[in-house]
Specification:
The structure holds two protein chains of two kinds.
Chain A: E1 2-8, H1 14-22, E2 27-30, E3 37-45, E4 48-54, H2 66-78, E5 82-88, H3 92-105, E6 109-114, H4 116-122, E7 124-126, H5 128-135, E8 139-141, H6 150-162, H7 175-184, H8 196-204, H9 208-211, H10 217-231, H11 236-255, E9 256-258, H12 264-276, H13 279-326, H14 329-347, H15 350-366, H16 368-382, H17 390-395, H18 400-405, H19 413-422, H20 432-442, H21 447-471, E10 483-485, H22 494-528, H23 541-549, H24 561-569, H25 576-585, H26 590-597, H27 600-612, H28 617-627, H29 629-657
Parallel strand pairs in A: 1-4, 1-5, 5-6, 6-8
Antiparallel strand pairs in A: 2-3, 3-4, 7-9
Helix pairs in contact in A: 3-11, 5-11, 7-8, 7-10, 13-14, 13-15, 14-22, 15-22, 19-21, 20-26, 20-27, 22-28, 23-24, 24-25, 27-29, 28-29
Chain B: E1 9-16, H1 20-28, E2 36-42, E3 48-52, E4 55-59, H2 61-64, E5 67-71
Antiparallel strand pairs in B: 1-2, 1-5, 2-3, 3-4
Classes of the chains: A alpha/beta, B alpha+beta.
């Protein structure tokens, strides 16, 4: 099987190229040791099988970001048979920086001039035959979001994979650099099969990792300094970068015909930006867009979710009757109460998740997402996060699971993990049934105020925790500087957004399904064993655990086994708390039973606990997949501790003040 | 003067005060000392949007204060 790597700048459309090539054969995983998504897939062309890896989007191959390091390590160590470098033809000069870097490594490069339609719209016409002749590599034109040129690209990959490895591109950096390379040759121990000239140039640029291979560091360092100084550059990197851009400009001049006709699109884009990024207009506008997103995700999603919920309920009841005739009781209960309702509780989220993914890719594609991040940046920065964190946090009000998945748009690990860890504090819609039950029983006159206070407390805690996290665990990691490219606005390709949304939803279902399945079985076992006892009663194992831990909650005013069991079962899904209370006290006398157990003060303490304690299983699964087990454990522990402490503090002080 | 102080119009970039990472990121985006860029929008004290040819880059306020520029009449 031949190995193909897809490289390219962010926004070059390379993920779309990857999708066009591999179709549905994709797998996602993480790059070893980091939380960056790794996409791999394969395709067959003319009987030859190709394994394709989508490298992270990068501007160059330094070790500046984790993405660049991943891409560079892959290219050096894995030695792909073909490297497809995807280029945004409408931004060709800048995108060619990466092209030349990879050419200098000496790979079998294939240049994919993507988005040629945009380039032509802007007035750039590229002569690909000339480009191919100058750089001595094949060049293909594509329009990925319309799936144009995919077959030609496959053909070119097929042809390129049969070729010998390209010789490394030699850019003329001037006599001094050649001299420096000669000088360096006996002072460096590059690993075997390392791209030599590229490595020497990196040493000249003082690349931290590759400079380690130098034997006589001081001498080399001095030589670099004197070379740079004699040319009047501030540092060696500027020297190399400028020379490289000079080379790129020269090459492109030969191959591009420019017609300055359609700058209108940019003019339009600039005009929109003047409004959208103005803080007085931009922030309200952003909130309106968020509100609309919310309305769609939950307004359209919830009725659909209800339908699925009802269907699962119906299926559950019908199968119960059917199974009761065939299977023994415990098996029927496991299959229906356990597996079908449990797994069903995840499938129910599907409409919301799908809509959310769709809207996110829609906003990303249109170019708005980049602006939104900028608008919110100042506020988010104040609480120790990146502007882009705002969107996932807002989404957390609906459901924490898609919110956590939405953190994938964040680039830095620090921002991603902190955001993931505070999202459980955003009060999701599944917690609302608990609030409604308790406010109905205890705070009839202040219903809205009480519920609103819980949401606000959640937000306040999220801000506090992210501030603490960014100053403790992640103190050393800096947020990346706030510089980003604003692609011109464009009409999003709806079909593509739909496809991407469906693909991401499927991955979520598959991942969540397996873990939730086992969790549900465990909870079910605990609440039905030992044999012969009533489901979810005091005599079950769950009930016994409940009795055992109940005293912990005494200082918060609700140290009873029923309540402990309800909280435990709420880990499966928060709304289950209500269901469990219903099962224990009976639907009829629920309110009066609660009123006999709780005082208004302990009821509010319980609501605080319900808001904060341990995220539900679906959320935990998402955290584990996105951030890793370590941060999942930290999140579980801190939410549990925070919830308990706040409930206790509230109950004790309120009692002390005795109101 | 710094880029953050420019409301509108064309400027020439004279230097970057920020750290190496910052400078690298500007390089990666194709912005160099000596380049002439146009300020498209400046939401002082918020982000600044600059244009170089068909490229649009938004720069956070903090970073914009680190870019030295000279106004071009």
């Amino acid at each position: 099987m031949k190995k193909v790597a897809i490289a390219g700048n962010p926004n070059s459309g390379k993920s779309t190229i990857f999708n066009n090539l591999t179709g549905l054969s994709q797998k996602t995983g993480n790059w070893p040791g980091v939380t960056v998504e790794k996409m791999e897939g394969n395709f067959t062309y003319k009987g030859e099988k190709f394994y394709v890896v989508d490298l992270p989007g990068t501007y160059g191959l330094s070790t500046f970001t984790i993405d660049e390091k991943i891409a560079r390590d892959f290219l050096i160590k894995e030695k792909p048979d073909v490297v497809v470098v995807v280029v945004d033809s409408s931004n060709i000069e800048r995108h060619f920086y990466l092209v030349t870097e990879i050419l200098e490594m000496g790979h079998n490069v294939l240049i994919d001039l993507n988005m040629v339609d945009l380039a032509e719209e802007k007035g750039y016409f590229i002569d690909e035959a000339m480009l191919s002749k100058i750089l001595k590599v094949p060049v293909v034109k594509t329009i990925a979001n319309k799936n144009i040129g995919t077959e030609e690209l496959k053909e070119a990959i097929y042809e390129a994979s049969k070729k010998e490895r390209n010789e490394a591109l030699k850019i003329n950096y001037g006599r001094d650099i050649e001299e420096f390379i000669e000088f360096l040759k006996d002072k460096v121990n590059l690993p075997e099969n390392f791209p030599e000239r590229w490595g020497y140039l990196k040493i000249f640029s003082k690349d931290e990792e590759i400079f380690e291979f130098v034997k006589d560091k001081e001498k080399v360092d001095e030589k670099i300094k004197s070379t740079v100084k004699s040319h009047g550059f501030p540092d060696p990197e500027t020297f190399i970068v400028e020379k490289k851009y000079g080379f790129i400009k020269g090459v492109l001049k030969e191959c591009i015909r420019e017609e300055r006709k359609l700058w209108k699109r940019l003019e339009m884009s600039d005009k929109i930006d003047k409004v959208v990024t103005n803080p007085y207009v931009g922030i309200p506008l952003f909130l309106i867009f968020m509100f609309i997103t919310f309305e769609i995700v939950f307004g359209i999603g919830n009725p659909l979710a209800d339908l699925i919920d009802r269907f699962i309920g119906f299926l559950n009841e019908s199968l119960k009757i059917l199974f009761a005739r065939i299977f023994p009781d415990f098996l029927t209960s496991l299959l229906t109460d356990g597996i079908i309702s449990g797994v069903g509780s995840v499938i129910v989220f599907l409409p919301n998740i799908f809509l959310l993914f769709f809207l996110i890719s829609f906003m990303e594609d249109s170019g708005y997402m980049a602006r939104a991040a900028f608008v919110m940046d100042r506020f988010m920065h104040y609480i120790g996060l990146h502007g882009k964190s705002f969107i996932p946090m807002i989404l957390g009000f609906g459901c924490n699971v898609p919110a956590i998945l939405a953190t994938r748009t964040l680039e830095s690990k620090k921002d991603r993990i902190i955001t993931i860890m505070v999202i459980p504090l955003m009060s999701c819609s599944a917690r609302l049934p608990i609030y409604i039950l308790f406010t109905g029983a205890f705070f009839k006159n202040y219903h809205a105020l009480i519920v609103f206070s819980l949401y606000i407390i959640g937000v306040f805690l999220a801000i506090l925790v992210s501030k603490i996290l960014s100053r403790t665990i992640f103190k050393k990691e800096e947020s990346p500087p706030l510089i980003m490219e604003l692609p011109p606005y464009r009409k999003p390709a709806i079909r593509w957004s739909l496809k991407l949304a469906w693909f991401r939803s499927k991955l979520f279902l598959r991942k969540a399904g397996t873990i939730i399945f086992s969790a549900v079985v465990i909870i079910w076992l605990l609440s039905s064993l030992p044999p012969g006892v009533e489901y979810a009663s005091k005599d079950t194992i769950l009930g016994k655990i409940g009795s055992f831990i109940a005293p912990i909650f005494s200082p918060a005013g609700f140290g009873r086994w029923e309540i402990a069991v309800a909280l435990l079962s709420g880990i499966v899904a928060k709304e289950v708390v209500v269901g469990t209370l219903g099962a224990i006290f009976g639907e009829q006398g629920l309110i009066s039973s609660l009123q006999s157990i709780f005082t208004p003060l302990s009821a509010y303490a319980f609501l605080l606990m319900s808001l904060i304690y341990i995220p539900c299983i679906a959320t935990m699964t998402a955290i584990k997949n996105e951030a890793g087990t370590k941060y999942l454990i930290i999140t579980i522990l801190y939410t549990l501790a925070l919830g308990w402490i706040l409930a206790v503090i509230f109950y004790q002080t309120a009692n002390l003040l005795s109101f | 003067m710094s880029l953050s102080q420019v409301k509108k119009g064309k400027v020439k970039i004279m230097g970057f005060l920020g750290g190496k990472h910052f400078q690298r990121k500007m390089f990666a985006l194709g912005i160099f000392v000596g380049d002439v860029v146009e300020v498209i929008a400046n939401n002082y004290p918020g982000p600044v949007i600059i244009a170089k040819n068909s490229l649009r880059i938004a720069i956070g306020f903090g970073m914009a204060t680190q870019i030295l520029v000279e106004k071009i009449p």
